[in-house]
Structures are given as structure tokens and as C-alpha cells.
Amino acid sequence: PYVLVTPNETRRKQLQEIAKKELDDLERWKEEHRPGPITLAPQRLGGKESEAQARQNQQMTLMQSKYQQKHKREEYVKAKKAAEEAEILKKKAIQREKAERLEVKKRQQEMQRREMLLEDQNYKTNELLNRLDVHLPKSDSCQIANPGPESTAWTRSHAYKQALREEENRRLEEMKQEQRRKAELMEFKQKQEEEARTRAHQNEQRSYLQSLFSFYCTLRVNNAFLDRLQKKTQHNNSYQPG
């Protein structure tokens, strides 16, 4: 459902008259506030340089801007490449450190496992030897003077224990030496990597200085060429008739 509202003709006429009056007032205000004619004092325009010199300066500025843009592009490419290489080196260093830590952890676990194995083996050996000692009779002066098979077995067990202790000490000393050698090797590798990074940084600085020196030489050559061209132009202009 909908309701149809008939338009009010009187209200519409009033609104149209108001809008027309406002437009007339706006046009009248524009006419009243229209700016008048501009009067300027006559003066001489233009610079002190001649057209040839202005064109020469413009050409020099254009060439310098081209060299500057080229140098900026080269610097941007070098900086981007250096940043990428630094990021790659950083990731490699992180991966290397992780691998080294994992290797050190594995070596420590292996050493702990070996130590536990040696301790268990020594414990079992000592337990066996103690059992053998329990079954052996106590030695007196006669047995010491005339050693029998029991004293010989005790001597053998004591020598075996001593040999086991010496072997264990030798293995522990070898593992300590191995860990010491690996630590020295890791320190040497870190020093080499630090020296390599220092040399790369120095080479980068050297290449940057060389590029700046070449740009400066090129700019000096161009300026000398433009000076000769300017002198030649001035010489030709001075000999023109009239």
C-alpha cells in the first residue's frame, strides 16, 4: 500500500522565487566584486647570462644529474646486494652455531653414556672380584711366606682391578684431550670467520672508494670538456660580424 500526496503549488512557487532571488543576489555580488584591470610598471625581464651560456649550464646540469642518478642506482644495487649477502651470512652463522651446539650436545651425551657404561662395568667387575675375595681364605704369615694358589688368585684380582682403574683413567684423559682439541679447533674456526668478515668489509669499503674516485675523475674530465667548449663558443661569438 502507498499514499499519493498531491504537490502544493503555492509552496513550490515560493521556493522557486526564493531560489531565483538568491541566484540574482549572487550574480549581483559577483558583478560588484569583480577585480579590475591589472596595471604593472614596465620593467626589463631576463637574466644576465646569454642564451648560449644558459644552454651550456643547462646541459652541464643535465649531465651531472644523469651521473648522479647512475651513481645512486649503483649504490642502491650494491647496498641491496650487501644486505642480501649479510642476511645469508647471518643465516649460515645461525645454522652453523645450531649444528655446533647439537654436535657438542651429542658428544656430551656420548661421553656420559661411556662414563655410565664404564662405571657399570667397573661396578660389576668389582662385585665379581669381591665375591672372589670372599671365598678366598685369609692370608697369614705362613701363606705369605709360601704363597699358594689362593694368594696367587688374589694377586691376579688385585692386578686386574689396578689395570681396570688405569684403563679407565686413560680413557677419561683421552676424552678430555679430545674435548680440548675440539674446543681449540672451534675457536680457531671462529677466528677465521671473523677475519673473513673483516676482510670482506674492507674490500667493500675499498670498492666503494674506488667507485667514488672514478666518478670524481669522470666529473673532472666532463667539466674540463665543458670549459673548453665554453671558451670555444665565446671565441666564436667574439669574432662574429656585427
From TrEMBL:
PANTHER family to which the protein is assigned, alphabetical: EPITHELIAL-STROMAL INTERACTION PROTEIN 1
Record's keyword annotation contains NADP: no
Coiled coil: 76-119, 161-195
Signal sequence range: none
Keyword annotations from UniProtKB, A to Z: Coiled coil
Region (Disordered): 26-59
Organism classification: Eukaryota, Metazoa, Chordata, Craniata, Vertebrata
Biased composition (Basic and acidic residues): 26-35
Gene name tied to this protein: Epsti1
Superkingdom of source: Eukaryota
Name of the protein this chain belongs to: ESIP1 protein
